[in-house]
Amino acid sequence: MEAPPNAQKLMPHPLVSAIVICYNHARFVVECLESVKAQHYPNLELIVHDDASRDNSVALIQAWLARCNIPNRLLRQETNQGVCRSLNHALSQASGKYVSGIAADDVWLPGKLLRQVELMERLPDKVGIVYSDALQMDEEGRLMQEKFIEAHRHFKTMPEGDIHNILWEGNFIPAMTTLLRRECYRKTGPYDETLFYEDWDMLLRLSRWFDFVYSPEISAKYRIVTTSMARSQKARMLDATCQTCAKHLDQGYLLPDARRLALRKFFEYVIASVWNRTPAHKRNFRKAMQIALGDALAFTLLWRVLSQKIISKAFSLAN
User: Fold this and answer.
1) Which of 49, 206, 215, 238 could lock 132 by a disulfide, CB 3.0 to 4.6 Å apart?
2) What structural domains does the chain harbor?
3) How far apart are CA 199 and CA 202, in angstroms?
4) Geometric angle at alpha carbon 175, from 114 and 217, rounded to 5°
5) N-to-C CA span, the chain
6) What would the 3-class secondary structure string for the chain be?
7) Angstrom distance (rounded) from CA 109 to CA 146
8) Alpha-carbon distance 14 to 234, whole Å?
């Protein structure tokens, strides 16, 4: 039985649920699991979720778990369900005060969990999530020059506190570095299983209700794999990004500054979707027009974004 919240809070090392999500990661999954074990965190449960891998990932996981002294369970899907449903399934089995997830092709660095738990335990419940930067590596594990955050955004000071508007300018947080209070999901609800990928939508939802804190210690290594979702499914990723923007705009909760940022980002992604003829480009464009025709600000932003795209394309063709 799970300890009551006040009892867990008094524990020197509150329970952490480590969630590993695997899909065809046989080449990397043991290294990932070893990095979880190397945390040496004294109160840890390990939940491994395999989303119907077609390689020998499951056999490798089962053999590793049989030798592991960390309380663990393996969840298996017979058919591929996608990352959002996989995460929801794993979270339904989690009982930790804190949750930290990682894809089976990535690696945690030693001490990640202990440092982040100690930091979160000193902070008020309003702080829902801690994140850090991550090293980047290629398929063979060779480190790359750029770290994760600088490959996505450039900051003089890493964002903390209310970062909702900053996230609307684009996601920059490496998901495998995060640790969050499991109670946060009571406020945000589960991952949206209609989406093709999960992190930006959930971070936006978390940032509505909770503050973020940055930990300066690099806590993970992110592997860039040619067959990864972000690289092999770019069109579907783009459509899901349009869907994420439209969903948040439709919910009507955005304050004026956030709404302006969200509209601009939505129209940028819609135009990229149309330009690249993604599977849902017609639906994306219809949604953009629906929003723009009913709102003067939205129409102005759409026109600006479209004009900039046309001018940029003309310059590239001229050169």
Assistant:
1) 215
2) 5-226 (3.90.550.10), 233-318 (no CATH)
3) 5
4) 40
5) 67
6) CCCCHHHHHHCCCCCEEEEEEECCCCCCHHHHHHHHHCCCCCCEEEEEEECCCCCCHHHHHHHHHHCCCCCEEEEECCCCCCHHHHHHHHHHCCCCCEEEEEECCCEECCCHHHHHHHHHHCCCCCEEEEECCEEEECCCCCECCCCHHHHHCCCCCCCCECCHHHHHCCCCCCHHHCEEECCHHHHHCCCCCCCCCCHHHHHHHHHHHCEEEECCCCCEEEECCCCCHHHHCHHHHHHHHHHHHHHHHHHCCCCHHHHHHHHHHHHHHHHHHHHCCCCCHHHHHHHHHHHHHCCHHHHHHHHHHHHHHHHHHHHHHHC
7) 17
8) 39
Q: Which letter, b or e, does each residue of 239-252 get, where b requires 16 or more Cβ atoms within 10 Å of its Cβ?
A: bbbbbbbbebbeee
How many Cβ atoms are within 10 Å of 270's Cβ, its own excluded? 30
Look up the pTM and report it.
0.91
